[in-house]
Amino acid sequence: MRKMSQALVLAGVVSLPALLAAPSAGAAETAAASPYSITTNINLVTEYRFRGIDQTWGKPALQGGVDYSHTAGWYAGAWGSNVSGGVYPGGSLELDYYAGYNGKISEDLGWTVGGYGYYYPGANTNKAATPGADQKLDNFELNAGLSWKWISYKLSYSTTDYFGANTNTGYTSGTKGTLYHDLSLNYPIMDDLTLGFHAGRTDVKGMLASGVNPDYSDYKLSLAKTFKNGWNVSAAYVKASNDNVYKNVQSLSTTATDTRDLNKAVLVLQAGRTF
């Protein structure tokens, strides 16, 4: 699950060829700036956390994506990462796709709206160590948010059952309408050094059949540094709540029988480069 607030994704711009103005007689050729750009990124993290929850069973992840942005405010992109079959039975890859619009109310105040999809090729609960019903784990969300200088808030609304959470997977009902609250702060200590803080809240539209409430909070404190030639690194302390659901979780993989605390506090290190 891509995760501009959740796993630290690199941002780099590969400009498309500028549109050149036709030269006039006796005048130097002038170049007009392109109204759009393509951003590509690749990075390695010691562990992939999405909204505070372990996605790779404690293993490293290789991640990368491509983004399109237009000066008018439109954006679109795609992103991918490896994931664990212990969390997504039968799957090993997450592919995200998204698009939307970023607007400005004033120089310091902005807003955003968009859609974000999560796709896990081959992942299905009928491929778990103890097979369940035929249920895919994909998800799609709509989102809207506001930002002021280095502070932002975004609300995401699931238009589908939240990553396959429904009566097929141990819930009392479907979970369409699940909300995710994302409050983030990214303060520039220096031009090349940023201090980040994130607090999130997942409000699941449903209860587990056992009667346990699946709602939880997640937190992240990070420090990120950029270098010349597109390199950047970061370190983030990540934690999530609700031990009743996310502590001592049994692997869903057919090749492993261990358990893991998917919400435990962990230091996630990241290194990558823009192109």
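(ticket continues) Second input and output from the same batch:
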Amino acid sequence: MRLTSLRLDGAEPAALVRPSGAVLLTAVNEALGTTWASTVQELLELGQLDDLRRWVGGAPSGLLDELAIPQDQLVYAPLYRHPRKIWGIGLNYVEHASDLSEKAPSTEPASFMKPDTTIIGPGDTIRIPPQSQRTTAEGELGVIIGKQCKDVDEADAASVVAGFTTIVDMTAEDILEKNPRYLTRSKSFDTFFSFGPELVTVDEVDDVDALEVATLLNGEVHRRNAVSNMTFRPWWLVAFHSRVMTLLPGDIISTGTPGAAHIRPGDTAGVSIAGFRDLSNPVE
């Protein structure tokens, strides 16, 4: 199952992704008498995602397709606006660490947190802050937590994950280079975290380690690498961070980038992962 959030009449309602477009869950409720939550974040927080996935598997596909808003009329929003936590993972590909003349962590991940005020969605503008002369954009695979959990074993991590998404993470790299303790500030400017347009549930991904993640700059691949080449892979990251603090539905782990692209006004930054809808944002 794939979910998205749309911009519609000043709201950002959840919708089921269909071959022909997307079906608002509010339209499903009205047509079929169901009571699904109206936003992706509410679906996660209320624990409805698994039930919805099972329901969609048995739902009349013809009726769902009749309710679909055509693809050419869709305007995407971020999947949601207020996750309780956004974890980022720095230098998770050895090649990216060498770009920054740094040594990749080998014993524990270089993780950091970002505020939800960084969030933008597909097509929204990335704004380079006046404090930075060199801001970078990084395409990443995002892991979305689906169930409250603590001290999860790596072998059980998939059972607490709702799904995956595409992310473009930004860094004011010149600020970070002044002092590694400036990491939070360099990562936390408004518009520095784009995610969406789709939540792809775990059952839709046969082998997460086989996914290839690419940072895009102006529509071209800047750097590409496979999840299998991460130092710390997604299920391990979920287990590790669950031992730090309780993970909650809607929490996001952005798993690291194969390479950061220096962005300038007029550019378009993006991410491409095979089997996922691309995400891109203009830069000002």
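Agent notes: Residues 49-58 form the longest helix (10 residues). The chain has a mean pLDDT of 95. Closing as not reproducible unless the customer responds.
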